[in-house]
């Protein structure tokens, strides 16, 4: 009986932790659930998209899905136009507490170190928020790296299940292939991301 109670408690704690930065905005009731497969409709044809336990539908070694994003300064940039550079994509939003925790480290340990390197690009992709909110978000977190708008989370949905959570980082090599995927903020994982970027830019 004690074992059953502990299992129920453990599952409840896990669910709360996963919900903390799930794909849902504050005030909604849905909880992110890890899944191996989900059916999604595209052009009226049902296709099966395989997701890993963190919700990613892309894998290390694959070509990063292309997209065009409008930055907060109004400029547009496509991922394919950055070919030849090491590119880091950070999926974020102002309502995500883990994102707010991670972003100053991205600024200090990655952006400020490599922003003048012509072989590096970093884009923060803000999930489904208006320009004024994204600008306020950048100011409150103190980040100076480029942020772009992702209305409807359509760019995000190229990389992960639309309703799965953030923060996430995707590292792309000079040929456009994914070399690293991270989820949430973990000091060891973040340190390995920093190290990988440093190695790729030597």
UniProtKB/TrEMBL annotation:
GO BP terms, alphabetized: cytochrome complex assembly
Locations listed in the record: Cell envelope
Residues making up the signal peptide according to the UniProt record: 1-20
Protein's UniProt keywords contain Isomerase: yes
GO cellular component terms given for this protein: cell envelope
Classification via Pfam families: Redoxin (PF08534)
Molecular function GO terms recorded: isomerase activity; oxidoreductase activity
Domain of life: Bacteria
InterPro entries, A to Z: Redoxin, Thioredoxin-like_sf, Thioredoxin_domain, Thioredoxin_ResA/DsbE_sf
Keyword RNA-binding set for record: no
Sequence ranges assigned to domain Thioredoxin in this UniProt record: 58-202
Keywords: Cytochrome c-type biogenesis, Disulfide bond, Isomerase, Redox-active center, Signal
Stated name of the protein: Protein-disulfide isomerase
């Amino acid at each position: 009986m004690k074992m059953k109670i502990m299992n129920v408690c453990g599952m409840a704690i896990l669910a709360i932790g996963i919900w903390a930065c799930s794909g849902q905005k504050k005030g909604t009731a849905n909880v992110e659930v890890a899944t191996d497969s989900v059916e999604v409709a595209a052009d009226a044809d049902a296709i099966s998209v395989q997701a890993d336990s963190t919700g990613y539908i892309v894998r290390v070694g694959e070509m990063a899905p292309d997209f065009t994003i409008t930055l907060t300064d109004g400029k547009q940039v496509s991922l394919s136009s950055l070919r030849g550079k090491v590119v880091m994509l950070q999926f974020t939003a102002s309502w995500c507490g883990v994102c707010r925790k991670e972003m100053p480290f991205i600024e200090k340990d990655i952006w400020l170190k490599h922003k003048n390197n012509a072989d590096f690009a970093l884009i923060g992709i803000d999930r489904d928020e208006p320009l004024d909110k994204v600008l306020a978000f950048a100011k409150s977190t103190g980040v100076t790296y480029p942020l772009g708008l992702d209305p409807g989370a359509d760019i995000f949905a190229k990389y992960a299940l639309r309703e799965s959570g953030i923060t996430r980082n995707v590292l792309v090599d000079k040929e456009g292939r994914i070399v690293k995927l991270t989820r949430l903020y973990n000091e060891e994982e973040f340190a390995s991301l920093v190290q990988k970027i440093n190695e790729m830019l030597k």
